[in-house]
Design a protein that fits this description.
The structure is a single chain. This protein has helices spanning 3-16, 24-42, 75-86, 128-137, 152-165, 200-209, 225-233, 253-259, 276-287, 316-323; strands at 63-68, 93-94, 99-100, 103-106, 109-115, 142-148, 168-170, 177-181, 187-191, 215-219, 237-239, 241-246, 265-267, 289-294, 302-310, 331-337, 346-348, 358-364. With 366 residues, the chain is an alpha/beta fold. The strands form five sheets. The chain has a six-stranded mixed beta sheet with strand order 4-5-1-6-12-13, with helices on both faces. The radius of gyration is 24 Å and the shape is globular.
Length: 366
């Protein structure tokens, strides 16, 4: 029996099983088996992958956004209009399977837009192409799911299920579960809050499926068995996602007002280029980029070409590494102007965390 048949069989059994306290252990076991089979789909045993066509897109710019959607939802129109309106690059770069319709410049940052065609039309069959597309999707800093506003929910659920199956978690934080393997001592479970689903028996059942018999588990919040499996698997990626509800020119104002209240959603019309400003502003907030301007000694700051860093990785050390890998060896201190310091300028060390639009001058050792 192939992997796909086994996955379908387990999913069918999970749907048949009633959810109650007595069946929690059985369901946990099935979920763990399902996660292991899905991992085999993405990373087949024995390596050497299929002989799929080359699907390798060089990462350019400061961030990468993957576009996912069913055919005929207006994805291509949106991509070419966004790239056409906001891009410096007119010529489209083609790779064998995907199009990169240029790099858009927004607020000084270069952002790469990627159409990911194969996710919906055949990633689940485990063929080389689908897996390679997924591998590119996992490197994206943000995912745009393009939906038709007239039938959004069924498409949304299908796409989410597809991405979840490949270890991509949308708009979620990594689970607050501590997991540490050890040589001996059995399973030690520590719960910091009352758990509604996980208890020692269920945790042992799931760990047993992974042949783990000695580990320390700390549950810091009320956690689910899916979250525990994610932590054990360890190959999950947590990516922010914006749902683009396209073709709003076909609905009424009242319906539009309701759509605006849905979290993580932006209603647009790709054809008429409506609401692109709102979309780009939300895109900027979700990407969490920090722009830092350089200031050579005795000169004005260069506001035309910021060094773009990610939130959480925006220290002086990160900034220096992005400029040149040998800069830290010669680093003495930095002068910073901006919202991250009290005094203008302020002398700081390499651990200082920078804020958006700070100006930095690095002073080297003599």
């Amino acid at each position: 029996m192939g992997i796909l048949e086994r996955i379908a069989e387990i999913e069918a059994e999970m749907n048949r099983t009633q959810r109650n306290k007595a069946t929690m252990g059985h369901l946990g076991l099935l979920k763990a088996r399902l996660a292991k089979l899905r991992r085999e789909l993405i990373e087949p045993k024995g390596g050497g992958g299929g002989a799929g066509e080359g699907f390798d897109v060089a990462k350019t710019g400061d961030a990468r956004i993957g576009f996912v959607g069913f055919p005929s939802v207006g994805k291509s129109t949106l991509l070419s209009n966004l790239a056409g309106v906001y891009s410096e690059v007119a010529a489209y770069e083609f790779t064998t399977l995907t199009t990169v319709p240029g790099v858009i410049r927004y607020k000084g940052a270069k952002i790469q837009l990627l159409d990911l065609p194969g996710i919906i039309e055949g990633a689940k069959d485990g063929k080389g192409r689908g897996k390679q597309v997924i591998a590119v999707a996992r490197t994206a800093g943000l995912i745009f799911i393009v939906l038709d506003v007239l039938k959004p929910l069924q498409h949304k659920k299908l796409i989410e299920k597809e991405l979840e199956g490949f270890g991509i978690r949308l708009n979620k934080e990594p689970p607050q579960i501590g997991f540490k393997r050890k040589e001996k001592g059995g399973i030690n479970l520590q719960t910091l809050v009352t758990q509604s689903e996980l208890d020692l028996d269920l945790v042992k059942t799931i760990l047993n499926e992974y042949k783990i018999h000695n580990a320390d588990i700390v549950l810091r919040v009320d956690s689910t068995s899916e979250e525990l499996i994610d932590v054990i698997e360890g190959n999950r990626v947590y990516i922010p996602c914006i749902y683009l509800l396209n073709k709003i020119d076909q609905i009424s104002i009242e319906e539009l007002e309701i759509i605006y209240k849905i979290p993580h959603c932006v209603p647009i019309s790709a054809h008429h280029k409506w609401n692109f400003d709102d979309l780009l502003e939300k895109m900027w907030n979700y990407l969490g980029l920090v722009r830092i301007y350089t200031k050579p000694k005795g000169q004005l700051p260069d506001y035309t070409a910021p060094v773009v860093l990610k939130e959480g990785k925006s220290s002086i050390e990160d900034f220096a590494n992005k400029l040149h890998r040998n800069l830290l060896k010669e680093f003495k201190y930095a002068l910073v102007w901006g919202s991250s310091v009290k005094h203008q300028p302020q002398k700081v060390g390499k651990d200082h965390v920078l804020c958006d639009e700070d100006v930095v001058q690095i002073v080297k050792k003599v």
